[in-house]
């Protein structure tokens, strides 16, 4: 689906009319192109203390022009607010008011990234108030920014520092065009690299100077529901980043699936993921051809919408079977198999419906909230063991699934986010590619929303 309104308001006269009438004026988002510079213009690093200094040094090492204060008349590509030492709400004013100045001179598609500690890791009420306060302020900044700019946060869990490999990986993701449709979100990072992770050095190299354009080179990834929509884009994006892709979908989608597999130089596997032997067939295929399964993306999903009052068992059961029961069964079998890598990544598709609920989607929301529950519980069992599992929760994404929404509702749904537009499948795929990379080694049990800060839910 194309968003004709977005195209229209980005031409001169209709843009002026929309402005005069106070209508939404979504901007064309800055999306990733391999080899893009981290920042074309200077980046402000506000905040004091060793953590802020060290982070500013890292950015300098990435060949970024770093400023510690906003300079008159100078545009900024991004502002990084380091508040890792915030101990009371009074500590927020300095760096956040400086951020306010930076917001005035951010380039279109600019970025704000806050780095701070988790309120969950303190029992001191003033410290927790300061940390939680940053969360509220940054969510509000995200709602205020225009021109396709975004604001997100990196939340350091106990022991993590501003320059850990995963902190830097998350920073790089948020600064880049890969995070175009991620807005008002917070990614928790744990510091100590888990045992068995392919080495801190590798992770650091992946986020430091000379970042490889193919961070997933040598990895084998399985993507379910890959014949079309978001799944097809995930397959393309993982392949672009160097992964060998095994594209899975139902036999009925065989032709489209083969086209995707050919396009990405991967293989196609016609499997209904609700079949009891689905995981065994995938393991046999991957084990036989490539030896190791590194990345699993549980993308296949269906909707069978009805108000609960009108819901029948077949609609309910079908959604639960495809969207969550199959994932639970497959994960159990993957995790028990020597083919699944000791540093393996599982990334599962949730939905903002699973966070906020959605009228007519009690079955779908149960399945997607179920994904979130599954991811959190499974992640706890992975802690420190080298594997990770995370979820990505898309909001309104332009696909066949959302093309079924009636036109007026669809128009409204698009504008109900801070970025005033729907996301593209590639936006979801970029978040998944990031979570699959070494740079995200310390991200586990997280639900990353790719929703343009949709008004639905938190
Ligand atoms: P889509 O309907 O375009 O594609 C889904 C794919 O999954 C299809 O190719 C389909 O054949 C496949 N599939 C369905 N059942 C299967 C099964 N039993 N075995 C194997 N493959 C199966 O959907 P999409 O919009 O690309 O969504 C992809 C994922 O993202 C889904 O999990 C969906 O719930 C989630 N999501 C989408 C949106 C959105 O706005 N489009 C929002 C939130 C979440």
Automatic annotation (TrEMBL):
Ranges in coiled-coil conformation: none
UniProt cross-references to Gene3D superfamilies, sorted A to Z: NAD(P)-binding Rossmann-like Domain
Cross-referenced SMART domains: PKS_KR
GO molecular function, one term: oxidoreductase activity, acting on the CH-OH group of donors, NAD or NADP as acceptor
Pfam families reported for this sequence: adh_short_C2
Domain Ketoreductase: 219-400
Domain of life: Bacteria
NCBIfam families with a match to the protein in the record: PRK08261.1
PANTHER family noted in UniProt: 3-OXOACYL-[ACYL-CARRIER-PROTEIN] REDUCTASE [NADH], SHORT-CHAIN DEHYDROGENASES/REDUCTASES FAMILY MEMBER
Family stated for the protein in its record: Belongs to the short-chain dehydrogenases/reductases (SDR) family.
Protein name: 3-oxoacyl-ACP reductase
Species classification: Bacteria, Bacillati, Actinomycetota, Actinomycetes, Micrococcales
């Amino acid at each position: 689906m194309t968003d004709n309104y977005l195209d229209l308001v980005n031409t001169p006269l209709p843009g002026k009319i929309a402005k005069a009438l106070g209508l939404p004026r979504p901007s064309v988002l800055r999306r990733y192109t391999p080899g893009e510079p981290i920042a074309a213009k200077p980046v402000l690093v506000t905040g004091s203390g060793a953590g802020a200094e060290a982070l500013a040094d890292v950015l300098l090492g990435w060949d970024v022009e770093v400023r510690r204060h906003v300079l008159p008349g100078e545009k900024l590509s991004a502002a990084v607010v380091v508040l890792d030492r915030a101990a009371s709400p009074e500590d927020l004013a300095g760096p956040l008011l400086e951020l306010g100045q930076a917001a005035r001179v951010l380039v279109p598609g600019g970025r704000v990234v806050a780095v701070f500690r988790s309120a969950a890791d303190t029992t001191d009420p003033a410290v927790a108030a300061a940390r939680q306060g940053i969360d509220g302020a940054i969510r509000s900044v995200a709602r205020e920014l225009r021109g396709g700019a975004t604001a997100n946060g990196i939340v350091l869990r106990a022991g993590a520092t501003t320059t850990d490999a995963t902190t830097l990986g998350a920073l790089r993701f948020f600064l880049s065009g890969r995070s175009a449709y991620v807005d008002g979100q917070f990614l928790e990072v744990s510091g100590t690299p888990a045992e068995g992770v392919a080495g801190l050095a590798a992770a650091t190299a992946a986020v430091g100077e000379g970042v490889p354009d193919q961070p997933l080179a040598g990895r084998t990834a399985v993507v379910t529901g890959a014949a079309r929509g978001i799944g097809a884009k995930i397959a393309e994006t993982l392949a672009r980043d160097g992964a060998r892709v095994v594209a899975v979908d139902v036999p009925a989608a065989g032709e489209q699936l083969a086209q995707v597999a050919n396009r990405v130089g991967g293989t196609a596997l016609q499997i209904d993921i609700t079949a009891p032997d689905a995981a065994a067939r995938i393991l046999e295929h991957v084990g036989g051809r490539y030896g190791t399964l590194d990345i699993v993306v549980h993308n296949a999903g269906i909707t069978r919408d009805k108000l609960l009052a009108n819901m029948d068992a077949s609609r309910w059961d079908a959604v639960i079977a495809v969207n969550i029961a199959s994932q639970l069964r497959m994960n159990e079998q993957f995790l028990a198999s020597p083919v699944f890598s000791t540093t393996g990544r599982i990334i599962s598709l949730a939905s903002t419906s699973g966070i906020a609920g959605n009228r007519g989607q009690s079955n779908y929301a149960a399945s997607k909230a179920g994904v979130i529950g599954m991811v959190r519980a499974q992640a706890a069992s992975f802690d420190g063991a080298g594997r990770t599992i995370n979820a990505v929760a898309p909001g309104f994404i332009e696909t066949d699934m959302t093309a079924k929404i009636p036109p007026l509702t669809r128009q409204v749904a698009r504008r109900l986010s801070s970025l005033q537009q729907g996301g593209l499948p590639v936006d979801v795929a970029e978040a998944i590619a990031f979570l699959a990379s070494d740079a995200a080694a310390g991200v586990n049990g997280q639900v990353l929303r790719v929703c343009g800060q949709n008004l639905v839910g938190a």
